[in-house]
Design goal:
single chain; alpha/beta; Carbonic Anhydrase II; two-stranded parallel ribbon; 6 helices; 15 strands; 22% helix; globular; disordered N terminus; binds zinc ion
Length: 252
């Protein structure tokens, strides 16, 4: 019992540092070649869930896996603090929030930690891949995670993205000051906040499970030039391929 608690505690801390630093596990991994997604589960013992997990993310949200619900509870958004920095962790561009913002779901308050991006999208909707997906990562002190996925479709230039891209460090490990107020974060979110919900994992090593996934049904937009600008920093896609749904269902 005691040992179990200690192990659980250290796992939670490892998970939290993964989320806070955005860097993932200690062993080097990437999106191409030997270090790519197909091999993550073999790169390190603590990445084994990437291969053996049964509730992995991302997924293709289609009619075969979704079930109607009586009505999902509304996500309790309280984004009242802004962004203060932007980092390049070698895998993505991540903006960090000042403490004080949160969502409430299942009666649990999940503090907002960071927002980062994948191109193309990781999750798919009815097999559709989007040019960009943003992940708002929320974590409680004990390591429970809730991630909101926001899709960006081809369209108008996005003023929020424009601010982030203008300051994004081009070198891995880079960090820049970036001030974006809460009002502009809220403006980035679609007015309509209906969502798909499922159990999943981190989409990067160590692929830890037990993550509450909430993918918004309404999208934002990004221009083709903005997507290219992000790709030019990493030179390749940074999305994990969709994973088997197994016994899970997506609630809509
Ligand atoms: Zn992500």
């Amino acid at each position: 019992m005691r040992l179990g608690k200690i192990i659980k505690g250290s796992l939670a801390i490892a998970l939290l540092s993964t989320v806070l630093l955005g860097a993932g596990g200690k062993t080097h991994w990437g999106y191409t070649g030997h270090e790519g997604p197909a091999n993550w589960g073999d790169l390190a013992a603590d990445y084994s869930l990437c291969k053996s997990g049964k509730s992995q993310s991302p997924i293709n949200i289609n009619s075969e896996v979704t079930v109607e619900s009586e009505g999902l509870e509304k996500i309790g958004f309280d984004y009242s603090t802004g962004i203060s920095s932007v980092i390049n962790n070698g895998h993505t561009i991540q903006v960090n929030f000042d403490e004080g913002s949160s969502i409430t779901i299942d009666g649990i308050k999940f503090p907002l930690v960071q927002l980062h991006f994948h191109t193309p999208s990781e999750n798919q909707i009815n097999g559709k891949e989007f040019p960009l997906e943003g992940h708002f990562v929320h974590a409680t002190k004990d390591g429970s995670l809730a991630v909101i996925g926001l899709m960006f479709e081809d369209g108008a230039e996005n003023p929020f993205i424009k601010k982030v891209w203008a300051k994004m460090p081009r070198q891995a490990g880079g960090k820049e000051a970036l001030s974006i107020p809460a009002s502009e974060v809220n403006a980035l979110l679609p007015k309509e906040k209906e969502y798909y919900r499922f159990n999943g994992s981190l989409t990067t090593p160590p692929c830890s499970e037990g993550v509450r996934w909430l993918v918004l049904k309404s999208y934002s937009t990004i221009s083709k030039a903005q997507t290219k600008e992000f790709l030019d920093v990493f030179h390749h896609a940074n999305n994990r391929p969709v994973q088997p749904i197994n016994a899970r269902k997506v609630i809509k």
